[in-house]
TrEMBL record:
Classification via InterPro entries: Acyl_CoA_acyltransferase, GNAT_dom
Name of this chain's protein: Acetyltransferase (GNAT) family protein
Annotated transmembrane regions: none
A Pfam family it matches: Acetyltransf_7
Domain spans labelled N-acetyltransferase: 114-183
Domain of life, source organism: Bacteria
Species per Swiss-Prot/TrEMBL record: Williamsia maris
SUPFAM superfamilies: Acyl-CoA N-acyltransferases (Nat)
Amino acid sequence: MSIRLVDLTADDVHRWLGPALDVYVAAMNYPRGTQTYRTPLWRDHMNRPGWQAVGAVQSTVSTPVSPAGTSAGDPPTLAGSTTETLIGIAYGYRGAEDQWWNQQLRAGLRLGGYTRTQIDDITRNYFELTELHVHPSMQGTGTGQRMLTRLLADRPEDSVLLSTPEVPGDDNRAWRLYRRLGFGDMLRHFGFTGDPRPFAVLGRRLPMN
């Protein structure tokens, strides 16, 4: 078994979007069927400036099988097959003032006491990390960090921003990953319109060393 990273493109979305949404639903523990209404949104994101996506693919090679009748010492004539499964997805795009998340962020920063100059500086040139998910069966393997590092490696923006649900003591795998990679607090316990959960907005400067 091995895990490799692949760059995902809008041209081959028909191959990876369904499996990626399945990973998203499993990682977030959302009800089955969530994929249906998230599909149009993810497709819309692909049309935004600077969109980029990375996937993690698990390769499993089955054991070669010898056909009946061959001698024990003969090499197998039926080669083992390789099965590839998408087990991780990360994507984002360049933030812009006409985007819902940007508008929510600016409102939150105003409520958080940031000045207009500070808000303009934060939101002027950033990459929004929109989704980062690893299937629960493969979490703890370092896959999330590998995907995020690759996704941000050559981004031209000044910074990367993301939002993530609050958890007690900032103690889950996502939070530990973001802290390990140097993400700091921008907003805490912020409520996005239409979602009752409290969120944190985290960010760090680019490039990543």
